[in-house]
Amino acid sequence: MSDIELKTSGDTPARFALELQGISKSFGTVRANRDIDLQVPSGTIHGIIGENGAGKSTLMNILYGLHRADAGEMRIDGTPCKIRSSADSIALGIGMVHQHFMLVPRFSVLENVMLGSEGGGLLRAGRGATLDTLKRLGETYGMVVDPNALISDLNVGTRQRVEILKALKGGARILILDEPTGVLTPQETEQLFEILKVLRDDGVTILLITHKLDEIMAVTDNVSIMRAGTMVGHRETAQTNAAELAELMVGRKVLLTVEKGPANPTEILLSVDNLGAVSSRGHDVLKDMSFDLRGGEILGIAGVSGNGQTQLLEILTGMRVPDRGQVNILGDKISKTSPKNPRELREMGLAHIPEDRHIHGLVLDFEAQENVVLGYHRDDITGTGALIDRDVINTHCAERMETFDVRPSNPALNAKNFSGGNQQKIVIAREIYSNPRVLIVGQPTRGVDVGAIEFIHKQLIALRDAGCAIVVVSVELEEVLGLSDRIMVMNDGQSVGIVDAADTDVNQLGLMMAGISQEAAE
Ligand SMILES: Nc1ncnc2c1ncn2[C@@H]1O[C@H](COP(=O)(O)OP(=O)(O)OP(=O)(O)O)[C@@H](O)[C@H]1O
After folding, report:
1. What does DSSP assign to residue 250?
2. Fewest Cβ atoms nearer than 10 Å: which of 25, 106, 147, 483?
């Protein structure tokens, strides 16, 4: 099926855990997968990359029985098979860890692992046997987790391990991971990769979908590249590099670093003064936070997620009232006694690209054109008069989609039916349109492909150069370094220091993220 050599686990002749031939799938007029061929050698880690909307998740969902292919053949370990449901897929030894975890938060680890395996005889096997298996799998693969812990008490990295354990417990020998590192800290990502290598060395075949080319280079044996629903190439990872992969994905050369000139800061547009916030359990989640930001400047905020960044963003965008201190924004004040809501802030000239596009960025069951005019109900783009003019918003949305290369460019498609990266482009297109004076951005490129990252970064730099004051919170250190003029590092709800981006590097930021002061980290 493929004309290039793929790295195998050393078996001769090469055995393929998975072979796909001629797989096609359409959703209405969208041809999400067209005649896809893929061979995955047993006991290898195989990367699948491609632009947003290229069809990666669709292909994996077909494999996991969540969608049915319109055409094509599938072989597992050389045996032809038909997959009609997830149960079929699990029975064939396929497991999947989704981007959004499927665990029940109020159940324990053990209960979650037992859930869904009822048909597999697990309940009959009983708690004791399941506990033993969990312990054995945890020790074998370096994923020891307390079986009695509640999922809601576990951090994201540990929850992901529970998902993997659950798949292995169900007998998975082919494991699909759909963008597993999007929500992980750099340390958790490292730990995950160690686990994947141990699994691979034990003969498990892993399919890894990610947008992060450095991860592809670090952990995969082979990589397959998709574009616009087709498979455009396969490479042995050791024989390629990030630049070649980016070009194969996007069909042109891509800048993998941010290009920007020096900042020309103007007057202070945002000033944060001794800001503090207390959680519902009475913990200080934000402590004595102070900084100024001028027009024409980007302040990056780096830190391991969960160190107060979310609360800071919530206060700056009017979603949370500060418990102490105040924010001066565009000449107005926000404090405990004089709060402002998101609408008031928006009218003052603030825009917000939220950290979680599913919760705060989009109404998933609304059409793209309805989402693109959210927050603009009183403006011309929704038509004149009391009723929204659908022709006007349709034209407006089509223009926005064209500028931001949203695919498919269908204003009437519900937001939930766009791929993750295209959903992000819809949110950014809407927020930038208001031509804000202050822009607050959380995780601008989470789940976004390299071509779109380049585009989003250029848009943010252009806004900066037009005089906008921008705060960017990102867990991607390279992104913070590339975009920002100054960087504030947060640890345990407070600022560890503010450094000039030109005078720092990943090492110093990493030390500061661990709570080591700026001076000590230098
Ligand atoms: N249920 C659906 N109804 C309509 N269109 C869909 C549906 N699911 C996916 N699509 C479309 O199929 C195409 C492929 O989407 P898919 O989610 O497979 O892409 P992807 O490569 O995983 O993207 P991303 O990297 O952004 O997650 C996209 O154009 C998407 O809008």
Report:
1. H
2. 106
Asked whether residue 226 is domain-assigned, the answer is: yes
- Cβ-count burial of 150 within 10 angstroms (0-12 exposed, 13-18 middle, 19+ buried)? middle
Q: In what order do the strands lie in the sheet with 438-442?
A: 350-353, 438-442, 469-473, 297-302, 486-491, 494-500
Task: Report the alpha-carbon distance of residue 502 to residue 203 in Å, rounded.
Answer: 45
Cβ neighbours for 388, distance < 8 A, ≥ 6 positions apart: 373, 377, 382
Q: pLDDT tens, 335-361?
A: 999 999 988 999 999 999 988 777 777
Rounded CA-CA distance 336/418 in Å is: 39
> Is residue 151 within 8 Å of 159, Cβ to Cβ?
yes
Ligand 1 site residues (CB inside 6 A) read: 27, 30, 32, 50, 52-58, 407-408, 417-422
Q: What pLDDT score was predicted for residue 119? A: 46
Q: Are 69 and 62 in contact (CB under 8 A)?
A: yes
Shared-domain flag, residues 430 and 444? no
| Mutation choice for ligand 1 from 29, 179, 407, 419, CB with most ligand atoms inside 8 A | 419
Measured from the Cβ of residue 128, the count of other Cβ atoms closer than 10 Å reads 8
- Counting from 1 in the atom list of ligand 1, the atom nearest the Cα of 226 is 21
What's the CA gap between 347 and 375, in Å, rounded? 9
Q: Residue 62 is part of a domain; what is its CATH number?
A: 3.40.50.300
Q: What is the pTM of this model?
A: 0.78
> Which tens digits make up the pLDDT trace of 33-55?
999 999 999 999 999 999 888 99
In eight-state DSSP terms, residue 405 is T
Answer yes or no: do 393 and 509 share one domain: no
**CB-based burial of residue 402 (10 Å sphere; 0-12 exposed, 13-18 middle, 19+ buried)?**
exposed
